[in-house]
Amino acid sequence: xxxxxxxxxxxxxxxxxxxxxxxxxxxxxxxxxxxxxxxxxxxxxxxxxxxxxxxxxxxxxxxxxxxxxxxxxxxxxxxxxxxxxxxxxxxxxxxxx
Length: 97
Description:
Layout: H1 15-41, H2 48-53, H3 58-96
């Protein structure tokens, strides 16, 4: 093998990527379900904010609703992960001591 053709070694994603996926993926799945339920029960034309700010565009309402729900559920998942990590750290310190 030539030195010019050295193999490319890729590192596995770091802890930050792992935490981001633990937060964003469940939040995405919940946002899909919640958005479907929300707009199955309420038509975008019935919401005054949609009429006022989105000019009655249902697709814009679906998109904004989905993104808002995704952010809400991501914040919830992030808080859960933060609290779980702190609790696990506390338990590990108690076990060592």
